[in-house]
Write a structure and sequence with these properties.
By secondary structure, the protein is mainly β. Helices cover 0% and strands 30% of the residues.
Length: 96
């Protein structure tokens, strides 16, 4: 079970994380319940730049990985970056 959860239920229109720089690693987070109005919001993780990695996260689930607590957009959205499949993710309930 992962211990750090970013819950967007009360965040309004937002992304869970917005990383504008390159060469960052996001690892071992639970990110859920973010809502948005277009591709640029409602994502668990919004990436810009290159060389970013997302590993071992639960995106759109609870901390146990058993309940659907989806974000309204993508689990990971890479804007202007070379698209790469995130490693070892549990993703559920996103409504792109």
């Amino acid at each position: 079970m992962l211990l750090v959860e970013i819950n967007g239920a009360s965040a309004g229109v937002a992304n869970g994380l917005h990383i504008a720089g390159g060469s960052s690693t996001v690892r071992g987070l639970v990110i859920n319940r973010f809502s948005g109005v277009n591709f640029a919001s409602g994502n668990a993780i919004f990436l810009q730049g290159s060389g970013n990695k997302v590993e071992g996260c639960f995106l759109g689930t609870d901390a146990a990985g058993t309940a659907d607590l989806g974000n309204t957009a993508s689990g990971v959205f890479a804007n202007g970056a070379r698209r790469r499949q995130p490693a070892r993710q549990l993703r559920a309930g996103h409504r792109p």
